[in-house]
Structures are given as C-alpha cells and as structure tokens.
Amino acid sequence: MQLDPVDQILAQWQRERPDLDVSPMGIIGRMGRLSKHLERAIQVTFSEFGLTIAEFDVLAALRRSGQPYQLSPTELFQTLMVTSGTMTHRIDRLEKVELVQRIPDPNDRRGTLIQLTNKGFDVIEKAVEAHVTNEHLALSALEQSEREALAGLLRKLLISFEVQQDD
Fold first, then answer.
1. Is the alpha carbon torsion for 91, 40, 78, 63 positive or negative?
2. Which of 57, 128, 59 is nearest to 100 (CA)?
3. What gap in Å lies between CA 136 and CA 109, rounded to an integer?
4. In Å, what is the CA distance from 146 to each residue of 111, 138, 139?
5. CA separation for the pair 66, 61 (Å, rounded)
6. Per-position b or e across 69-79, b if 16+ CB within 10 A of its CB
7. DSSP code for 66
8. Comparing C-alpha atoms, which of 20, 98, 116 is closest to residue 60?
9. What are the Cα distances from residue 23, in Å, to 28, 30, 75, 164?
10. pLDDT in tens, the chain (167 residues)
11. CB-based burial of residue 28 (10 Å sphere; 0-12 exposed, 13-18 middle, 19+ buried)?
C-alpha cells in the first residue's frame, strides 16, 4: 500500500505518544487535505467562467430552484449557510456582471427576489457541466462501489453534525 503525507504524521505521533489513539487524525487530516486539493481544482474550473466558488453556489441555487429561477435573498443565504451581508455582497457582484437581477417580490411589496438573467442561465448551464466533468475526474481513482461506500459514510458523518447544529 502506498503511503501519503498523513501516514508520516501519524507515525510521528505514534512514536512520540504511543499512549494516544491518533487514528482520527488520519481521517480528519486526509479530509482536510483533500478539501484543499478539491477546492483548488474546482476553482480552476469556475475561473474559466469568471466565477468564484461562492458565486457558482448562488447561480447553482437559483438554477436548481427551477423556473422562474428566482429566490429571495433570505432563501439564498439560508440555503448557502452564509450571513445576509455575505449574500448581499455576492448578489451585488453577480448583478454587476449581469448574471442575476433584483426584481420586486409580487407577494411582498417591500421584498425583492433574485433571478437568473438569460446570461446567468447560460453561464450556469455551461459551468455546471464543466463542474460535473471535473468532479468525475477528481473521483476517478475510486471504483463505483468505492464511491458509493464513501458517499454513504460521508452522509452518515454529515448528518451527525447537522443534527447537532439543529439542537
């Protein structure tokens, strides 16, 4: 079996503190390192479309919402788990480059909705296709059965954290 940089860290801790079970460091350390590698690869793809990861997330949330591809700012920041100020900044940037527009909310005279423009729709369609291709490439070292097993384990772990947050 090939070793990775985390194996060296674990061996050092085992040598220095044999009384500790440092096995969680291996899992969490690898997840952290993988996260950094994946973020870099994902950002390279999004840069081809003039987007950041954060901007892609906004466009993708609007696209996933279905026609007419609009959500309230509150729905967006809750979906993306960011603050309202952060969401305002993202919307401002996307509006400036004409990928989204603010429109009056017909159900709330004081409210606005954020809607994909035609240009925004075209960009997210191309970006999501490139993103999915990139993700398949990123996971190509794993067999399909390994991907499914990993997805199940990550889901289980994520749910344990999400439930804790809701309490």
1. positive
2. 59
3. 44
4. 46, 14, 10
5. 9
6. bbbebebbbeb
7. -
8. 116
9. 9, 11, 39, 23
10. 899 999 999 999 999 999 999 999 999 999 999 999 999 999 999 999 999 999 999 999 999 999 999 999 999 988 888 888 889 999 999 999 999 999 999 888 888 999 999 999 999 999 999 999 999 999 999 999 999 999 999 999 999 998 876 55
11. exposed
CA-nearest of 47, 128, 58 to 136 is 128
CA end-to-end span of the chain, whole Å?
41
Phi/psi at 81 (nearest 5 deg)? 55, 50
State the alpha helices, DSSP H only, in the chain. Answer: 5-16, 23-47, 53-64, 73-79, 84-96, 118-138, 144-166
DSSP helix/strand/coil, 114: strand
pTM: 0.88
Which neighbouring-strand residues pair with 104? 112
